Amino acid sequence: MHPSHPISADTVRVESGSSYPEPFNSRMGSADWRALGEHFGLSQFGFNLETLQPGDQSSARHWHSLADELIYMLEGELTLNTNDGAFSMRPGMCIGFRAGERNAHHLVNQSQAPARFLVVGSRVPGDTAFYPDDDLAWLQTEAGWHAVHKDGRAYPKSTSAGR
């Protein structure tokens, strides 16, 4: 049963770690997130409240074949790395990435303080996430998400919970 009344986002269970296989998992740091969309049973889009500590990164630089993404900064300062360069992201700033647009991106906390942001992403069956800087892709099948090398070989399953 999912709540049918407003709640404080800070009451949603905190998740941490990543589902990346090594050698990528250890690059992510100790970031955490609250899966707000899942808390309410939403199925058409994900909605996460994420916190990056100094030195953390949100993900490896990636783009999605079928899913849109939107990032909205709440607190702190992050560096957004895209195909077009590095950009500072501060509270109130936002950016969107259209499905199929090959503008690989991720956020890195290069500051000395934690930073919080919202991520909204569509959930489209058959989406693939591509990582141009790494030998990695995530394929979505009926059985879930699977990390694979660019030649299609599967990575061993990660034991971490993940974003």
Automatic annotation (TrEMBL):
SUPFAM superfamilies: RmlC-like cupins. It comes from the Bacteria. Pfam families: Cupin_2 (PF07883). Signal peptide: none annotated. It comes from Chitinimonas taiwanensis DSM 18899. This is Uncharacterized conserved protein, cupin superfamily. Residues 1-23 are annotated as: Disordered. GO terms for molecular function: metal ion binding.
